[in-house]
Design a protein that fits this description.
The chain is mainly beta and 690 residues long. The chain is 9% helix and 39% strand. It has six helices and 53 strands. The radius of gyration is 59 Å and the shape is flat.
Length: 690
């Protein structure tokens, strides 16, 4: 029969049983091998640690401190082997604060570290028979004893024990610390004795050191170190004393007689501020509260300027206040005040009294009286009326303009000794010369000018000495043996530029605003608002020279207009200069062949010296020839620019009719041996403000 699934037929094979566990071959290492391996590994690790580790020696204080170090550590005694790097160290010992710190082990083969622990403080038990004793440790209050003082640092300390009424005690103590408690026994000695007190009258309250003890008669404790006693009784003055009694003894205080207490006197017056005398002794000013003896009539006098003396009598009782109020009587005087302008306001002591002339009734004391009006300068004065005598005062106010000029000095002195005179021309005149005037030159075109702005003008020409205050090496030289260089001779050989720079130097020296504007050491302009020193304008110089004090114009400096001069008036090219100058004045000898000492000749009617002769003078203006103009030119300043500057006035080297006239003009920039200058300046207000 054939199987449907085509399964092959089963066949028999040989049977062989599997081996048992006991018979199976083992692959696990033996115990001996494991031990050997482990030992070898440990040995290697130890060798590696020993190779890598560094020796650390710890010096401990105290030596008994127990130390623990983090990480792999090997130690014998104080010697440790540690790997390089940071380790945490902790140490502790009984009686010390524990320590924890980080240590660094370096590459050094052997290192040493000192470890010191801080000892704990100690405690001090103080035993005493008294309570509330203050104790100071090293001068610092530590508390009161008996009791225990804690946390005292180790070492020697000074102890001070103090208690009122006992002698202080000092001791030295050595604190062991380490948390230990030590004991001290102290005894304070009494510091008082006894004293008997008796007063008249009896019953006074006795205070010792501000503590009420009782009433007299009484026995009280008094300190050997000193006690303050106070005795008080109604109606009597308080008594205070500092006394002592030897400790442990008893004493008797001398009998104390109490003194009757003062009363008080309150003095006031209307008005206040009156001076007070009590029984002829100055005591103060009202209002016043003062102690006075009781049961006695006191003479009180009050004094106040402008008021009559007041006298009063008064008595007071012990420890009581009496009031004295006094109305003072004015002491009146009269002042008749006449004022101009008629509507001016009058103020007395700052209070208005109306306007116009009036009679003032005032206390006989100093009063501040002022008279004022808008547009005028206020006049203030101090007046003391005199009762029984009428006083009369006349006050005329000045306008602000008048007051200003009244305050300007008529003369001024510079710091180098140059004197200047104040002029207020306010005058119109002809600058230049008329066509028909003999000797007239073409550059002297006549024109009308008006001077309005006041100015100061030097009375003398600038001297060598004055100029050398600026340029100390300057020399005016000499001519044919005739010196021009004496200190008091006028300076010569000065350029216009240097003359102007001298003016600026003098202005700065005296703190005045400079007139000349300077750039790169050259004058480039003028500050016409400045009142510093300058050269005079040509118009100022001509007015000062040719117009006399009576406003009359002159052709020549002498008293008549004839040429040549009939008498010596100034220093020109005279007969004494014939050896130096080719053309000289006939029959004229001023006795000076060259320049004379400034001020050698008579001043003109304006008080100015050598406006003609001696040396010619620089003026401020640029040189030009200006035609006649219709309207007068006010305070002419000359051209704004030019190539040369104007020279005015004759000199010791000139003698012709043309040169000796006041209208003579020359020009230049450089210095000459017969050319100098004088200075001018405006007043401190610009002309527009006048």
């Amino acid at each position: 029969m054939v199987d449907k699934n085509n399964t092959p037929p089963l066949t028999a094979t040989d049977f062989t049983p599997l081996q048992s566990k006991a018979q199976k071959r083992s692959t696990r290492p033996s115990g001996a091998l494991l031990f050997t391996t482990a030992f070898t590994l440990v040995a290697v690790l130890i060798l590696v640690f020993l190779f890598a580790a560094r020796a650390l020696i710890l010096r401990l204080d105290p030596a008994t401190a127990v130390v623990d170090i983090s990480g792999l550590t090997f130690h014998i005694g104080d010697n440790y082997l540690l790997l390089r790097g940071e380790h945490q160290l902790s140490a502790e010992a009984p009686g010390y604060y524990p320590l924890s710190k980080t240590i660094e082990v370096s590459d050094q083969a052997t290192q040493q570290i000192d470890i010191s622990l801080q000892p704990l403080p100690g405690n001090l038990l103080i035993n005493a028979s008294l309570s509330d004793i203050e104790v100071y440790i090293d001068d610092q209050l530590a508390g009161t004893v008996p009791g225990t003082l804690e946390q005292i640092s180790r070492g020697a300390h000074k102890l001070d024990f103090r208690k009122y009424r006992y002698f202080p005690l000092q001791q030295e103590v050595q604190i062991e610390g380490l948390g230990k408690t030590q004991a001290v026994e102290i005894t304070l000695q009494p510091a008082w004795g006894h004293m008997d007190f008796t007063t008249v009258p009896a019953g006074a309250e006795l205070y010792i050191d501000d503590r009420l003890i009782g009433q007299t008669p009484i026995t009280a404790e008094v300190l050997e170190t000193g006690s303050q006693i106070t005795l008080r009784a109604a109606g009597y003055k308080t008594l205070q004393q500092q006394i002592t009694v030897k400790a442990g003894t008893k004493a008797q205080h001398p009998l104390i007689e109490m003194i009757v207490a003062d009363g008080q006197l309150a003095i006031n017056s209307s008005p206040q501020g009156a001076s007070i005398t009590i029984d002829k002794q100055f005591s103060g000013v009202t209002p016043l509260l003062v102690d006075v003896a009781p049961f006695t009539k006191h003479k009180v006098e009050l004094f106040l300027e402008g008021y009559l003396k007041a006298t009063r009598s008064i008595a007071v009782k012990p420890e009581q206040q009496a009031d004295l109020n006094v109305d003072l009587t004015p002491n009146i005087g009269t002042v008749q005040l006449r004022v101009s302008p008629a509507d001016a306001t009058i103020k007395v002591d700052g209070k208005s009294q109306g306007s116009g002339s009036q009679t003032l009734s005032l206390n006989a004391k100093p009063h501040s009286i002022s008279v004022e009006k808008s547009g005028y300068q206020t006049k203030s004065m101090t007046v003391t009326p005199r009762p029984g005598h009428q006083q009369a005062l006349t006050v005329k106010l000045l306008t602000l303009e008048q007051a200003y000029w009244a305050s300007r000095p008529p003369t001024a002195n510079s710091s180098v000794g140059i004197q200047l005179k104040l002029f207020r021309p306010d005058q119109q005149f002809m600058l230049g010369a008329p066509r028909r005037q003999p000797g007239r030159r073409a550059n002297e075109a006549e024109r009308s000018v008006a001077l309005k702005r006041p100015f100061y003008l030097a009375t003398h020409e600038t001297t060598n000495a004055q100029y050398r205050r600026w340029k100390d090496q300057h020399s005016s030289t000499a001519i044919k043996g005739q010196t021009l260089d004496m200190n008091d001779q006028p300076v010569a050989r000065v350029s216009w530029q240097d003359a102007a720079l001298f003016c600026n130097w003098l202005s700065r020296k005296e703190g005045l605003p400079p007139f000349y504007i300077i750039e790169e050491s050259r004058i480039v302009g003028f500050n016409w608002d400045a009142h510093g020193y300058r050269l005079p304008t040509e118009a100022e110089w001509a007015w000062a020279a040719k117009i006399d004090a009576q406003s009359k114009s002159h052709i020549f400096p002498w008293s008549n207009d004839l040429y040549p001069p009939l008498e010596v008036t100034d220093n020109y090219a005279d007969q004494s200069a014939r050896a130096l100058i080719s053309f000289t004045l006939p029959n004229y000898n001023d006795q000076y062949p060259v320049s004379a000492v400034v001020g050698s000749f008579k001043a003109n009617s304006k008080g100015l010296y050598e406006m003609s002769g001696n040396v010619a003078e620089w003026v401020n203006d640029y040189f030009d020839v200006r035609p006649q103009r219709g309207e007068p030119e006010v305070d002419p300043r000359g051209p704004q620019q030019g190539n040369k500057h104007v020279i005015r006035g004759a000199s010791w080297a000139l003698a012709s009719r043309t040169e000796l006239r006041h209208s003579y003009r020359d020009s230049g920039n450089d210095g000459r041996i017969d050319l100098g200058f004088r200075i001018a300046r405006y007043v401190d207000k610009p002309g527009s403000d006048l």
